[in-house]
DNA sequence: AGCCAGATTTTCT
DNA sequence: GAAAATCTGGCTA
C-alpha cells in the first residue's frame, strides 16, 4: 500500500526564509525526499531546531572548519555530521554564502518507503522510525555522502511541499546542548506523536 | 515513567 | 585529552 501525497513539488530556494530561525519554523510540515537504490523515502518534518548566527551552541560558532563548511553554504544545502561515534545528523543551512547557520532536522512522520525505513532502523514501530535526529538520518539513509548537497537542486535528496495543513507550530528550548540552552529555538507540530524529547517540555 | 551507563569516533583545544 | 546538536537497554520504583 502506497501513501498518496497530493501535489508534491520541489521547494525553490527563493521560498526559504533567509534567516535560520525563520527557516526552522517554516520547515515544519514540509517533506524530505530521498531517492535511494532501494526506493523513494519520504517523511514529513515535524520537529526542528535552529542554530542561528552567533549562537554559542552552534557548530558554526567558532568559524569555518573542515567539518562544518557546509553550514556556510547558501541556504538550502545539507550539512551532515557524525556524533557520539554512532550517529549522523542532518541539517539544512540557513544563511547566505559565507555565513554559518543551520537547522537540525529532529523528527519526521514517515510517509513513503516505510518498509525500507523499518529495515534500516531494525524496528517496525512506526513512532520510533524517525523520532530524534540520529534515528531520522538512519531511517532516511543519510550519511556523510549527502553532506554539502543542494536540497533545492539535487535529484536524490531534496525538500518538497504538499498541500497539507500544519496544525500549529510550538516553540520550546532545545535538546541535548549545554550552552544557550534557554533560547526557544526548537519547533514542532503541536499534537504530533512523531515528535522526540521528554513530554514535560511540550507546550 | 524516569534514571543511568555504555557505545565509539571525530573534532578542536 | 575532553566533549560532543544521541540512542538503546537495563535497572529501579
TL;DR?
The protein has about 200 residues and is an alpha+beta fold. Helix content is about 10%, strand content about 30%.
Any overview of this molecule?
The structure is a single chain. The protein has 203 residues and is an alpha+beta fold. Helix content is 11%, strand content 28%. It is built from three helices and nine strands; from the N terminus they run E-H-E-E-E-E-E-H-H-E-E-E. It has helices spanning 20-26, 114-121, 133-140; strands spanning 9-10, 31-35, 40-51, 78-83, 87-93, 102-112, 157-161, 169-172, 186-189. Strands 1, 2, 3, 4, 5, 6, 7, 8 and 9 form a nine-stranded antiparallel sheet that branches. Strand 4 and strand 5 form a beta hairpin. The longest helix is centred in the middle third of the chain and has 8 residues, at 114-121. The radius of gyration is 16 Å and the shape is globular. The chain starts with 8 loop residues before the first strand and ends in a 14-residue tail after the last strand. It binds a DNA duplex (13 and 13 nucleotides) through residues 49, 51, 57-59, 62, 65-68, 81-87, 89, 91, 104, 106, 132-135, 174-178, 198-199.
Measured distance between first and last alpha carbons? 34 Å
Low-confidence stretches: none
Largest sheet: 9 strands, antiparallel
Number of strand segments: 9
Query: On the 0-100 scale, what is the average pLDDT?
Result: 93
Instruction: Give the helix tally.
Output: 3
The succession of helices and strands, N to C, reads: EHEEEEEHHEEE
**Helicity level:** 10-25%
Anisotropy-based shape = globular
Classification by helices and strands: alpha+beta
Mind telling me the C-alpha Rg? 16 Å
Amino acid at each position: 500500500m502506497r501513501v498518496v501525497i497530493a501535489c508534491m513539488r520541489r521547494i525553490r530556494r527563493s521560498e526559504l526564509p533567509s534567516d535560520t530561525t525563520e527557516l526552522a519554523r517554516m520547515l515544519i510540515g514540509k517533506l524530505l525526499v530521498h531517492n535511494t537504490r532501494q526506493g523513494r523515502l519520504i517523511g514529513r518534518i515535524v520537529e526542528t531546531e535552529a542554530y542561528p548566527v552567533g549562537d554559542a551552541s552552534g557548530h558554526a560558532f567558532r568559524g569555518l572548519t573542515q567539518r562544518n563548511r557546509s553550514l556556510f553554504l547558501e541556504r538550502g544545502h545539507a550539512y551532515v555530521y557524525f556524533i557520539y561515534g554512532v550517529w549522523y545528523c542532518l541539517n539544512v543551512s540557513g544563511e547566505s554564502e559565507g555565513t554559518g547557520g543551520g537547522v537540525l532536522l529532529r523528527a519526521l512522520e514517515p510517509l513513503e518507503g516505510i518498509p525500507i525505513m523499518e529495515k534500516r532502523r531494525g524496528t517496525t514501530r512506526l513512532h520510533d522510525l524517525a523520532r530524534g535526529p540520529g534515528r531520522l538520518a538512519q531511517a532516511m539513509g543519510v550519511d556523510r555522502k549527502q553532506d554539502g548537497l543542494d536540497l533545492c537542486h539535487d535529484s536524490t535528496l531534496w525538500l518538497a511541499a504538499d498541500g497539507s495543513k500544519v496544525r500549529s507550530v510550538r516553540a520550546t528550548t532545545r535538546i541535548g546542548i549545554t550552552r544557550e540552552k534557554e533560547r526557544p529555538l526548537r519547533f514542532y507540530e503541536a499534537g504530533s506523536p512523531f515528535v522526540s524529547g521528554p513530554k514535560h517540555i511540550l507546550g
